[in-house]
Here is the input.
Amino acid sequence: MKSKIFLIIILILQTTLLASLSGDEFRKLPNKAFKEGEKLTFDVKYGFVTAGIATMQIPKIKRISGRNTYHVTFEVNSVPSFDIFYKVRDRYETYIDVEGLFPWRFEQHIREGKFSRDFSAFFDQRKGKAKTTEGEYDIPKYVHDIVSAFYFARTLDYSNLKKGDKIHLQNFYKDKVYDLDVVYHGKETIEVAAGKFDCIIVEPLVQEGGLFKSEGNIVIWLTDDDIKMPVRVKTKVVVGAIDADLTSYEGLAGPLKAKRK
Here is the structure.
C-alpha cells in the first residue's frame, strides 16, 4: 500500500513539473465582446456600387496546442456583377486563445484581380517562435496577427481615452514583428442597414499584413458598449477606396446597448 501511495505522489509531482516546464502559464483576460457563434455580415461598397459581401464569424471552438481557441474566419467576395471589373476572393483565418486572447495560427489567402498572396504562420507561444513556410522567427509573447489584433481590440476599454490617444500592439507578418498602434478618434452616431448605433472610432496603423491589398490605414466604427461590434469599415485599396457597412448580425456575446431604437 505504501509503495502505491509513493508512486501516486511521484506521478503527481512529475505532472506538476512537466506543466511548469511546458510554459502553460498564460495570461487570462476578460472578454465580453465576442463568443462562439457570432456572425457579422457587411455590404462592401465601391463608391455607390455594392461590390461585394464580407462575413466575419466564429463558427466553432477548436483545440490547438492543448488550448481552446476561437476559430475566426473573415471572407470577402465580390458579387458576380462586379467580378468582370475586379474579382475578389479573400479569406483570412485565425485561431485565438479563448482565455488569453492571443493567436496560435493565422492564414491569409488573397485573390484580388491578378494579384494573389498566400501566407500562414503557427505561433508557438510557448517557445516564442513564429513558424511559417519561409522559416522560423522570434516573436514576443502574445504577438498578434492582423485579425486577432482586431478581435483583441474589441475587448479593450476606451472610456478614458482622449482623441489622438494610442494603444500599442504588435503584429507578426511574413518574417517580421511590426508595431500596430490603434488610434482613438472619438465618438459618432451612424446609421447603416443593420440599424443606428452610437460608436467609437478607431484607426489601426497597419504597417504590414493588413486586410485587403491595402494602400492606407483602416478606420473602424465600433459600437460604444461591451460588444464593440464593427459597424463600418473604411479603407483604401489598390483601385480606390471601399466602405463596408454592417447589414446583419447574430450570435452576439451580450446586449447591444449602443443601438438606437
User: Anything to note?
Assistant: The helical segments are 2-21, 80-83, 146-154. The longest helix spans residues 2-21. Residues 4-23, 209-215 have pLDDT under 50 and may be disordered.
